[in-house]
Amino acid sequence: MKDLHSKISAMPIIMAALSADNTPSALDLKGYDSAEILLGVGIGGVTFTGTDKIEFKLTHADDKADGSAPDAGDFSAVALKDVLGVESVGSGGIIKALTAAHPAAAAYRVGYKGGKRWLKLLADFSGTHGSATPLGVFLLRGNGFDNPQANQA
Description:
This protein is an all-beta fold.
């Protein structure tokens, strides 16, 4: 069996039941050569439709010219060439859209290969969400420059 444990670190993005947009944090990929986003979605708080939906929007950015972290306006939507595991990317960097009934928990994953240092993931809620939907979203950073990665148990 190969050792994946020593080559990855996990960073929580969203760990909550939400009924409105999250405030996305900048996720730093410095020191890693690969990234994967894991989307864990519980039973929908509403019956998702084209109107009552959640769209997961991924954006990315480089450092500023002076080497500092980017501002919110520096982030741009990913394109299909920047991600793995999806057939298309929607407007604004939509990597996953929940637009149909979601009667059971599910997991999805999207790889990032865009080459920029910073990522942000927005869970964009549209329509009416009277009940919250549980979300467990993580960023797995892999192939670190300084392996083995520290234990996170």
